[in-house]
């Protein structure tokens, strides 16, 4: 961990320079919104997806994206139901979307990759007009819920968003931000930053069960009201702010970055435990074996 005044000054400047390079500006947001509309226009041309809508999720919705970040998009069927769609139907829907994107010149064969047999079938492409890399899935309600919750987490303290961007950038530089090769995905990195902030003294962020006390795993497959989700999260975050008024953690981003690596340097030692951002503490796996199966939060 960096302790000397000189090293802190150098690291602070380095952090500011990195954030200035990777934090998005309004033009980056506009390009992503235009890319969403571009895909929606393609969807509306398909009889097989009549009434479907394109919904963003992931870092764009959470406002935790970088200038070069991918755009996660979910095509949601217009049948008024959030119940699971079988894998075969998802694969066929993505094939139709692929044809529409190619026929309308939105992207080219060399800018597209279809991964139908992944756990969650995905169609990846780059928009020719806007240069945005997109990952399309079908009916990804889990992604929507988690993204919305992270959006509200991100409103509590601006240091959280900065730390997420810094840790993602570090992970990319170390080649450990690629789930296809067995390393961490961006969502896992966000959870590590969240846990770090929950276990700082005093806590910068509350446990997730104090932000959204519902059954997250159950809500993934049940009909849910996003407006109600927003209202619950907003009210609980305001309660956290009031309860912690006057005892705000003032640790600098520079020091939080150093203590992040110090905290997780021995993470391999947690063989019988899990890091739970839901409770904001270390939990024993034997107390709830479903943690190793659900992989929600």
UniProtKB/TrEMBL annotation:
Pfam families found in the cross-reference section: MTPAP-like_central
Lineage: superkingdom: Eukaryota
Residue ranges of every copy of the Poly(A) RNA polymerase mitochondrial-like central palm domain listed in the record: 11-151
Matches recorded under InterPro entries: MTPAP-like_central, NT_sf
PANTHER family reported in the protein's UniProt record: POLY A POLYMERASE CID PAP -RELATED, PROTEIN HESO1
Name by which UniProt lists this protein: Poly(A) RNA polymerase mitochondrial-like central palm domain-containing protein
Organism phylogeny: Eukaryota, Viridiplantae, Streptophyta, Embryophyta, Tracheophyta
